[in-house]
Amino acid sequence: MGLIDNINKLFDHRIRLGIMSILMVNEEVDFNQLKELLDVTDGNLSSHSKTLEKAKYITIQKSFIGKKPNTKYVITQSGKQAFKKHIDALEHLIKSQE
Amino acid sequence: MDSKKYLDDISQIKDLMNRSSRFISLSGLSGILAGVYAIVGASVAYFFLRPEPNAYITLHSWNFKILVAILIAVAVLSFVTAYMLTTRKAKKNEEKVWDETTKRLLVNFFVPLVTGGIYILIKLTSQHYGLTASLMLIFYGLALVNASKYTIGNVKYLGYAQIILGLICAAFPGYGFWFWVVGFGILHIIYGSMMHLKERKA
Fold this sequence. Notes:
The complex is a heterodimer of chains A (98) and B (202). Chain A is an alpha+beta fold. A 3-stranded antiparallel beta sheet of chain A has the order 1-3-2. Chain A starts with 13 loop residues before the first helix and ends with a helix. With 202 residues, chain B is an all-alpha fold. Chain B contains 7 helices and no strands. The longest helix of chain B has 31 residues.
């Protein structure tokens, strides 16, 4: 088995990695919080979060608070596992190159 | 492969996890002051309200009401001080005080605390005074441990110390007052000083 087998291509991007990191430690996070923390544009955030949703790593829940749309992001069980695996793989890679 | 990129990835993960989940740290000074308020309150109670030997504090006596008033005053003063000093510190560091994490911090802190408070009041109305100090320490400790997930710093250890003290207190009936002074007074001052020194170094 090669060293990079467990590196998840989906997480090999700054914004997607960021979304996953934040959702790992928070029960739910809304669109504006994510945007602020990651310092990205609306379009960027929604396209990358959709990619993660398609992979079933996160769920996106849309609702309304009064008249304002509110979008919440929650990590799924398989998303957690995939992300943990990815971090382990990163660690392995770094250790093996020291 | 360059491991530099992976290292960057990992430090980004860490940074985002910390920034998104942790409420700014409580100021150490507020811990010291909370301890001082507790000791002042306890001294007032000790010197002015000490019941005669063999006398019991009854629920409707003035002494009891004053005692409760002192407790509430100590709690409110400590809370207001912590709030003011923390806000000031956050402003200086240009951090936001009031966000989702703060709300979660408060909810996680108050759920065990209020539960304990109500429980103690129920026990008091059925004349069980004996374990009041022990219960206060234990529930306060649980509240701290529960809330510590959302703060920077080692509030968790203060929480553990309070719980242990509360349990020991339960084993020594009659010394509740002194355990209370140690827990709410001295432990706060020790913990606050440690945090304060750390803050000044940082």
